[in-house]
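User: I've been trying to design a sequence by hand for this structure and keep getting stuck. Would you show me what you'd pick, starting by listing the structure so we're on the same page?

Assistant: Good idea, let's start from the same input. This is the structure you sent:
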């Protein structure tokens, strides 16, 4: 199955430990550090809408862009269920999206940028983000670090399991240091009402980007005041950081 087609069914349950409110706090602190008060915010690679809806609840007008119809349909369902109206969800590719106008800030949460795997994809995406940001607007995103690809993902296999046994996910990684590509082979077993388990297989690929590559792509697209952090407290990254939170200002 294609990326996130199978995983969309179980994504929120498997990601239950992610503290989106804490990440949203970080985004708001970053807005203040950069001296901006965005009204309209784009959530790029919004997935099932966890961050989009969190920011909408905080009063921002939100646009969510994602390439997966399955993930977006969960986001749309959640918007109504959680009583957060008015979010514009668009099924578009991060490498070729179109908006009606500019936004004050762009956020992209949980390594969406690592899914830009082709040569030139990073540059295409960053240039569009720059194009749709207001002058002095801010781009906030995070990536899995080279340390994580080399030392945590590597050739490892994991099992993720829901406490109640309703989901069982086998996860195998295959990282190629030459190409920087990491393949994830996922087998998701979900329990049906009659107690049978249905298996869905899916393959995903992420690309490892160095700090230098990310900085060059941001600068090339017209960003300045680029900062890398290791955590949500704005700490400078250690060599062993597994995630970088990156902030950059759009210069026009
Ligand atoms: C790890 S999920 C993160 C989802 C969401 N931001 C969150 O924090 O839960 C990565 C998301 O990126 C999306 N994605 C991957 N490649 C994409 C592309 N080229 N264009 C748009 N979305 C993409 C996937 O569909 C998926 O929803």
């Amino acid at each position: 199955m294609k990326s996130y087609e199978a995983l969309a069914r179980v994504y929120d349950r498997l990601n239950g430990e992610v503290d989106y409110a804490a990440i949203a706090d970080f985004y708001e602190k970053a807005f203040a550090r950069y001296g901006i008060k965005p009204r309209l915010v784009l959530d790029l690679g919004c997935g099932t809408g966890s961050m989009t809806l969190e920011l909408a609840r905080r009063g921002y007008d939100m646009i969510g862009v994602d390439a997966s119809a399955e993930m977006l349909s969960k986001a749309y369902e959640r918007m109504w269920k959680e009583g957060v109206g008015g979010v514009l969800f668009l099924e578009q590719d991060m490498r070729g999206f179109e908006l009606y106008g500019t936004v004050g800030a762009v956020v992209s949460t949980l390594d969406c940028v690592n899914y830009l795997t082709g040569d030139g994809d990073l540059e295409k995406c960053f240039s569009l983000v720059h194009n749709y940001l207001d002058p002095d607007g801010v781009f906030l995103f995070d990536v899995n670090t080279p340390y994580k690809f080399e030392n945590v993902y590597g050739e490892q296999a994991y099992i993720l399991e829901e406490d109640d046994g309703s989901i069982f996910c086998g996860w195998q990684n295959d990282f190629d240091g030459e190409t920087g590509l990491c393949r994830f082979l996922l087998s998701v077993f979900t329990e049906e009402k009659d107690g049978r388990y249905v298996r869905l297989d899916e393959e995903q690929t992420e690309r490892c980007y160095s700090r230098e590559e990310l900085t060059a792509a941001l600068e090339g697209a017209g960003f300045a005041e680029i900062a890398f952090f290791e955590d949500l407290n704005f700490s400078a990254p250690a060599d062993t950081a597994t995630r970088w939170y990156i902030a950059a200002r759009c210069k026009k």
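That's my pick for every position. To get oriented when you compare it with your attempt: Helices lie at 11-14, 20-33, 50-57, 69-81, 121-132, 146-153, 211-221. Residues 4, 45-47, 50-51, 66-68, 71, 93-95, 109-112, 115 surround S-adenosylmethionine (CB under 6 Å).
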